[in-house]
Specification:
single chain, 183 residues, mainly alpha, Arc Repressor Mutant, subunit A, 3-stranded antiparallel sheet, 68% helix, 9% strand, elongated
Length: 183
C-alpha cells in the first residue's frame, strides 16, 4: 500500500528499524518473526526485494562485512536522504482517510516518532489523530442513527463495535498526550 511519500508500510517498518540501528536482512527477518512486527512477512521473498527497492531509492546503504560466521553479510544503515524521507513521512498530518483506511500505518508511524522527530511533533500527531477519530465517530454515529432500524442486528452490532474501537483509540491518544507532557 503506497502512501503520499511513496513509502509503503513495509518500507516504513524497515526504515524505522534500520534507523534504530544498522541491521542485516536476516536481522530484519528475525525481528519480524519474533516481535509485534510479525504481521509483516519475514519471508526472504518479501524482505530482500524491499531492501533492494529502498537501497535503490537512496534511503539506505548496504555495507558488506564479516558476520559471526565466515559468510559475508550486508549491513544496512539509513542514509541522510532516508532519514529525511522517514521524518517527512512521520510528520505528515493525520487525515480522515488515514483513520478510516490506514490505522496500521498510523500506529507504525507513531512507534518510530519520538526517536526520529521528537516529542512536540509526536504530541501534534496524537492531537490530530484524536481529532480525526472524534470527527469520524461523529459521522458514523450520525449514520447509525439514521439507519439503525433498517439494519440487521448483526450489522448494527458490528458497526457499534467499530465505533467503540475508534473511541478507544481516541481515549488512548489523549492518555498518550498526557504521558508525553510529563516526560
Amino acid at each position: 500500500m503506497r502512501q503520499q511519500t511513496g513509502l509503503s508500510t513495509l518500507s516504513l517498518a524497515i526504515l524505522g528499524v534500520i534507523r534504530q540501528q544498522p541491521r542485516t536482512g536476516y536481522d530484519i527477518r528475525k525481528l519480524f518473526a519474533t516481535t509485534p512486527l510479525g504481521h509483516f512477512s519475514n519471508s526472504p521473498g518479501a524482505i530482500y526485494p524491499a531492501l533492494r527497492r529502498i537501497e535503490q531509492a537512496g534511503w539506505i546503504r548496504g555495507r558488506t562485512g564479516k558476520g559471526n560466521t565466515r559468510r559475508q553479510r550486508v549491513v544496512y544503515e539509513i542514509t541522510t536522504r532516508g532519514l529525511k524521507t522517514l521524518k517527512d513521512h512521520l510528520s505528515r498530518p493525520v487525515t480522515e482517510g488515514d483513520v478510516t483506511w490506514h490505522m496500521d500505518d498510523l500506529m507504525l508511524r507513531f512507534a518510530f516518532m519520538d526517536q526520529t522527530i521528537g516529542c512536540e511533533p509526536t504530541r501534534r500527531f496524537l492531537e490530530e489523530f484524536a481529532s480525526q477519530l472524534d470527527a469520524h465517530v461523529a459521522q458514523l454515529r450520525a449514520y447509525l442513527d439514521r439507519v439503525r432500524d433498517l439494519m440487521p442486528m448483526c450489522g448494527r452490532l458490528a458497526m457499534e463495535q467499530g465505533i467503540e474501537s475508534y473511541e478507544t483509540n481516541a481515549r488512548w491518544a489523549r492518555r498518550a498526550i498526557k504521558e508525553l507532557q510529563h516526560r
